[in-house]
Amino acid sequence: MPLSPTLLYLLKANGALLLFALAYFGLLRRLTFFTLNRVYLVFALLFSAVYPALPVPALLPPLEAPAVATAVAVLLPQTTAGAGTPQAGPTAVAAPAETPIDWSAVVLAVYAAGAAVGLLRLLVQLLSLGRLRRTSRPAVVGGVPVRALPGEVSPFSFGSTIYLNPARHPAAELAAVLRHEQVHVRQWHTLDVLLAQVAQAAAWCNPAAWLLRRALLDNLEYLADHAVLAAGLDRRAYQYSLLRLSQGAAGPALVSHFTFLTLKNRVAMMNQPHSSTGQLARYFVAGPLVLALALGYSGARAQGARPAASSQRKTAAPTLPDTRPEPVTHYIDGKVSTVAEVIKLGADNVAFITPLKGDNARKFSGNPQDEYVMAITTKQNQNRADVKAFNARVEAADTETEAEVNVLTPAALAFITKNYPNSRIIEVTKLNHPPTGLGVTYKVHLAEGRRPHYAYFDDKGNAVKL
C-alpha cells in the first residue's frame, strides 16, 4: 500500500517520538538536571510534530528507481484464407474491475477517530475543571491568593491559580503546599501539561507518547519538590506530608498526578545524589543522535527510499492506565494499620519510612495480592526490640534494587565482553544484602538468544562466584 502524505507525516512524527523516548529513558531519566530534562521533553514533543512538515535536504545518495516496462498494445492484421486484404479480428471485452478498498483512507479514519476521542476527553476535563472553579471561592492564605475548595481534595494549580482547602492542612504542611504550587504557577507548568495531553491524544496509538507524557508530569513534580527543599524545608517532614496528601481524595484528572508509584519516584529523586557535571555529556549524545536518525530517515524518503515494511504495520493502541487506587499495606511499628491511623500519626512522630514494591512486598508479607508495603517506624518505638526485629525483616525483604548499566566498572564490562561475547545485558540490579564477605555486589542479567544467565561483581568490578 503506497503511503499518502498524511500517513507519511504520522509515521515520521511517531517514529521521532519513539526515538526521543528511548533516549530519555535510556540516558536521562535518572539525572537530577530537572530543568534540562524539562527542555528536552518539551522539545521532543514540539520537534516530533513540526519536523515531518519541514523540507529536509536529502542526506543519503538517491536510490536508483526501478525500470518500468511500458505495455504497448499491438493490433496484428488477420487474413482470411484466399483473401489478400487484412480483416480486423474480434475485439476482446474486458470484465469490469472490482473497486479496491482504500486501506490508506481506512487507517487514517481509525487514527482520526482515536485522536478525536482523546481531544474530546481533554475538553471534558477542562469543562470539569471550570465547574470546579465555580464551586470555589477566592481567598488569601499566607499572603498568597488562592481559590478555596470544600471537602477532602488534594491541592493543585492550573494556570496562575492555586486550588486547595486551607482547613485540611496543618500550618507547617500548608506552607509546603503553597511553596510547591507556587513553583508550578511561576514556571508555567500548565503549558507543559496541556502540550503533553494534546500530544498523547494526537499520537494515541504510540506507547512513546504515553511514556513521554508521564515522564514530563513526573519531572514537573521533581522541579517543584527540589524548589521546596531548596527553600529549607525539612526533607523527612515534607515526604511524610506527601504521603498523607496521597491518601486523600484526588483532584481533577487533568492536574492531579498522585499515585503510589509517582510518590515513590519523587521520594527516590529527593534522596538521589546530585548528578555530576560530567553527566551533562549524556545530553550531547541523546539530542544529536535522535536528530540525526530522524533527519536521516527524512532525507532517505526525500530521495525515494521505500519505507520499511514494519512501518506499514499498525501499532496496537496501549491500554489506558488504571486510575484506581493502588493496593498498599501499611505497617506502624510492625503492626498492620489503616490509612486513618497513618494520617493520625503525624510527621513529627515518624522516625523513618521504608517502602517495598512488587516481589519485595510479596516476599515480606507472604500475600501474593500485595503490590506495595509501606513500613513506618515511630520515634517513640524505634529502639524497641520487636520493632528492630520487624525492621530487620523489612530490610531482608528489600533484596534487590534496579541500577543503571553505568554502575559497572570497565573491568566488569571487559569481563562480560570476554566471557559472554554473544550475550546482551538485560538488567543490572544491586544486591542490598549480598552474601557475607562479598561487599557491595551487582547482579547482571544476561541473555544469549532466549537463554538467560547471570554474572556477579563487587563494587570494584571484580567477578564474584555465588
From TrEMBL:
Residues of the Peptidase M56 domain: 162-269
Region listing for Disordered, in residue ranges: 304-326
Lineage, top ranks: Bacteria, Pseudomonadati, Bacteroidota, Cytophagia, Cytophagales
Entries under InterPro entries matching the protein: Beta-lactam_resp_regulator, Peptidase_M56
Keyword flag Membrane: yes
Superkingdom, taxonomy of origin: Bacteria
Keywords assigned: Membrane, Transmembrane, Transmembrane helix
Pfam family, one: Peptidase_M56
Segments traversing the membrane: 6-27, 39-60, 103-124, 242-260, 280-300
The protein, known as: M56 family metallopeptidase
